[in-house]
Amino acid sequence: MRIGIVCYPTFGGSGVVATELGMALADKGHEVHFITYNQPVRLDFFSHRLHFHEVVLEEYPLFQYQPYELALSSKMVEVAEKYQLEVLHVHYAIPHAYAAYMAKQMLKEKGIDIKVITTLHGTDITLVGSHPTYKTAVEFSINNSDEVTSVSNSLREDTLRLFNIKKEIKVVYNFIDGEKYEKAHQAECKRIGLAQPEERILTHVSNFRPVKRTEDVIRIFYKVQKEIPSKLLMVGDGPDRLKTENLAKELGIEDKVLFLGNSNEVAKILCYSDVFLLPSETESFGLAALEAMAANTAVISTNAGGLSEVNVNGKTGYLSAVGDVESMANNAVIILQDDAVLDEFKKNAKEHIKLFSLENILPVYEEIYKSCSVTV
Ligand code: GMT
Description:
It is built from 15 helices and 13 strands. It is of the alpha/beta class.
């Protein structure tokens, strides 16, 4: 099939899922066209079946805000017409679903029928989308998509609670390419450069937004390192990074915490890890936790949103209430203090990700494309 994918090209989970999906679809023989304002960060190869079309914004002094949706929907029309796209799969409702609706209407005028699939990812519903500023347009564009998917049952329920939705929302879990993590594990896992042999390694990966509660990560680690010799790797960047670094200094543990910034080498970094910390306020799915599990890492998380659909309490890790630093630290210590226990959690985590394998999820999206496409 000929598929357009619209996403944020950044390190955020929705962009990562969209990019991995596009690359896997191209691998399977589909023609995939990414339409966004930058080359997606995880897009690491090009082929004759994989294309990137940049949405260029013209600066004009009259505009206080550049009208991105207009440029995006015009680009969607141009690409859909030129490459005879059958479906447009938009990731993250704002503003992609709205721009896709506009593109669909413009294409209709040209006698072209394209199907729009909207995948809801989380904050487009729970934090930003339901805000009165955007709610009307988000609700409209969900209801006017041809197909709507959400990345967890929890997000589906949140969407139905927060909006007046008339469309069926299909739950399609995020997926992982387990092989990639296996390769990183076998080939490049040299943890000696980061920690002493007797030290455990804890990791956190996020965009350091307030919703990730990165200061809780530091507080949890502060308690853990009192009991267990360990290091903490902080991967990513964002608005709360500075205050998180400051807290590590204040607590006198800055020599045990490494801030690594944004990285394209998450699989390699995760292969050093024993425990992944994700104390988020809200999390529709927790792709970062799934990636950690694929790299043989136990997960200490909150029980917010869809996290319990990914992390199984007492098996792949533990879940605690948001803000309960004490409980998360105790649980991390339980896992880390005994080699046999740690190995069991790691093994369970690796086993559990099979539920979210690329081989299982990719055909589900293909089926959705086929069932709504006019040409098949
Ligand atoms: O978590 C973020 O801030 C990034 C955000 C995004 O839209 O890229 O992630 C959301 O989508 C991911 C992929 O589906 C999910 O794994 C994350 O849980 C979700 N984030 C939140 O719900 C806060």
